[in-house]
Amino acid sequence: MSEYITVDARGLSCPQPVVETKKAMGRQTGGTIEVLVDTVTSRENVSRLARNQGWNVSAEDLSGGGFRVFITKA
């Protein structure tokens, strides 16, 4: 069964969003992880980590500011 995890890393300074995302990735072998961040740097760093670990990445801008990064693995 694939799991869905949300990591709210808004307000955290680098490298904390990456650290929290890596912890979530370690808790599951597949499924979807939604990561909420509020800076472009955090979005790029989380995306790079996920791609380097073999996950698929997509991101979208949030209307109130910040970004939602979806990382998925089948």
What does this structure look like?
This protein has 2 helices and 4 strands. The chain is α+β, with helices and mostly antiparallel strands. The radius of gyration is 11 Å and the shape is globular. It starts with a strand and ends with a strand.
Blueprint of the fold:
Blueprint: E1 3-8, H1 16-26, E2 31-37, H2 40-52, E3 56-61, E4 67-73
Parallel strand pairs: 1-2
Antiparallel strand pairs: 2-4, 3-4
Helix pairs in contact: 1-2
CATH architecture descriptor text: 2-Layer Sandwich
Q: Radius of gyration, rounded? A: 11 Å
Fraction of residues in β-strands: 35-45%
Low-confidence stretches: none
Q: List the domain count as a whole number.
A: 1
Along the chain, the helix and strand elements come as: EHEHEE
Overall mean pLDDT score? 94
- Report the CATH topology name: Translation Initiation Factor IF3
Cα shape: globular
